[in-house]
Structure formats: structure tokens, C-alpha cells
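Thread title: Can someone regenerate the structure for this chain?

I was given the following input by a collaborator and told the matching C-alpha cells would be attached. They weren't. Posting the sequence so someone can regenerate them.
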Amino acid sequence: MSSAPVVFDGVWKRFRRGERQDSLRDLIPYAVGRILGRSRADGDLKDKEFWAVRDVSFEVPAGEAFGIIGPNGAGKSTILKLLTRILRPTSGHCGVRGRTGALIEVASGFHPDLTGRENVYLQGAIMGMRRAEIARKFDEIVEFAGVHDFIDSPVKRYSSGMNARLGFSIAAHLDPKVLLIDEVLAVGDMAFQQKCLRRMEAFRDQGVALAFVSHNLHAVMHLCKNALLLDHGSVSRIGPASEVISAYGVSASGAHGGAKARTEFASVDVHVRGAGTRGIWTLRPGEVVQLDVDLQFHVGVELPAVGIVVRDMVLNRCVYDANSELVGIQPRRAGPGGRVSYQFAFVANLTRGVYAIEVNVHDLARQRVLALLCPVKQFTVVEEISYGGVANLFLTGSERSVAVGQDGDRCEHAEAV
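Best answer:
Regenerated them for you:
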């Protein structure tokens, strides 16, 4: 059996739509059916039943963060509930070893009529903390959550963000060996999200195993070494976080990954050149990307132009957009059957992340899109300097060291580069 702190081994979880029992008359046949149903094969579903998780396996070793991503309803939160034993698997094995901090629902474990102070002690006790330990860490918990002015108010009067901050703060201060975090952090403001990510980074570096469910692909990319992409409860892809996020970007957009397109107006063939263009393309900031674009027009075009777009697949935003006219290529009229080739190059001065190249062809005279390839190619930028943003400014620095005496006076200084 694996010694990893988090183990998920061949797990299946079955649900039944409308599963609810309001009377003893309903409950007895349901319970009998559940008992008898345990002998059914995994693939045998009865009416209204469905698989929320289907044959999923992964492990999270100590000192590693593991991302779980996918569309809504894919089974991400179900996996965390199975790990925390809120749910039991239909088949397979899953579990965690060591003290576990979990935040899988806003205000999970909170009693709405109790104050924040009372809920800190209640939630801490649920997570296995002794009262003396909670009391010792109480001020740190409240300060981290930023709810000092409301700590003696009932949590039913808290906003969802306040609930999330307090819940995460409790989980983050119990010295866990395993930390399970759901998308609940999305309800917090940006400053608090960054503080949570820094705390999770510190846990990871201290040897804590983290399972992190999120739609914030930038956070997953930054925090996690490996990731799992779920699709309708099944494993769509598992591996390095950058590759899994890249795969999710293609599936989520519904865009093809080819470099050819044909419309009623034009046929486009794009070839991307550069180091390592096979498979997942990895670049370092400053490397050059080259594109050859071949066009054949099926209709007459007055002022054809080719646009090159680079999009951040994690943040889902455009980071660069230019066209052939802006770089000095004059548009020339082309008739049906006309052919033209372009060569483009750009420098990938980008921070770490997953990006996609898009190519569009349009007629400037008629303001009409003739063809669109989205994406032509995806690539991953790797670097170890930046914390956020999309543009790599190649930051450099030097240090001015000042020696300070015991009385606080400056004694000497030296330059170090």
C-alpha cells in the first residue's frame, strides 16, 4: 500500500438523482436497495443513477501540491468530499494520512447562530485541535482572516468572503500534514487570495501535501507540480500542471489544434517554427517564434491582412494583437484563386504561463473576417523570476549593504551586485 499522505486508488462514486427519503416508507426500501446494490458491478447503473467519479487514481506525496481542474459538474468537489470522508466511495480506496485541514464549502462546519469566536473553537475541535492549541493560535487566526471587528458577531451575518477567510485561516493554522482546498477561495478578494496562495506555498515547502481544486488556472500553474483534468467524472489527463492546463485550454475553448483552415472566403495554412515545436512546446522568455502563413483566396479581396494574436490560456485574455499592415506589409488586392505567403516572427517576452497563438485573415476594406485559426499552436513559458503578470521585463537588481552598530548608527556601507 502506498505511503503517500493522499491516496486515491481506482475510486468510483455513484449517485442517484433525486436521492431523498422523507418518510420511513421511503427509507426502508431505499436502505434495502443500497445493501443489495453493493453486489452490483461498477458499470451496472439503475434508473436515475449516474457516476460522479469513474475509476480515478492519483497520489499526492509530501511536499507537493496537486491541482484538480475541469468544468463545473466534472466531479472535482466530490473527490475532496471522498477524501474527507464526507462521502464513501462506491468502490476503490481513498484516504489521507496525518492531521488534515480542509475547506471544501463556505462556512463548512460553522454554526450560523454561534459567533466567529465560538466557531473558531468548534471548527478547530472538528479538525482535531486541542482547546489550548486553539487558544494559543486564536489571535493569529483572527488576524489572518481579517475579521477582528466581527469576531463576536454570529457568522450568519458574515458575507461569503468573511466566512471563507475565517474557514481558511482555521485550516491554515492547525499545522496540517494534508491540506484540501476547494474553489471556495474564489469568493475572497484578490489580496486575500494572494495571501492564501503564499501560505499554501509555505506549507508545500514545509512538506505538507496539498490537493487544490480551482478554476483559477493561474494559481494552479503557479502552485502545483502535477494536475488532474476531469471530464464527467473520468480522468481526461493527468501529469505536469502546464501540460494538463494546456489540454484543458483546448477542450474548454472547443478549438482545434491544427494549423489549417478552409472557409468560403479563403484557405489558410500556418506553420510554426522554433525549438521544440512537437508536443507541448516549452519556451523561455526572449526566445523567437516564427510563423509561415500561406493563403489562397476563394473570392476577390480588396485589402487583405493577417492578424497575429497571443492569448494567455490561464487568464483567458489577449496579451498581444497585431497585423501585417502594422508591421509594414502593404495590403494588395487579390482575386479568386490568388495566393500570397507571409513570414512573421515575435519575441516571447512573457512570464510563466500557457499561451496560444491565433491567426486571423480579414479584409480591411469590407471589415470582414475571412478565416480564423484558434489556436494555431499552444506553448508554455517557463521561468523562475516573476510572481505574476504577463510581460517579462527582465528585472535586474543590486543590493546596497549597510552595516549597523549595536547603537543603531551606520558604521559602513558596501555595494554588492
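The longest strand covers residues 368-381.
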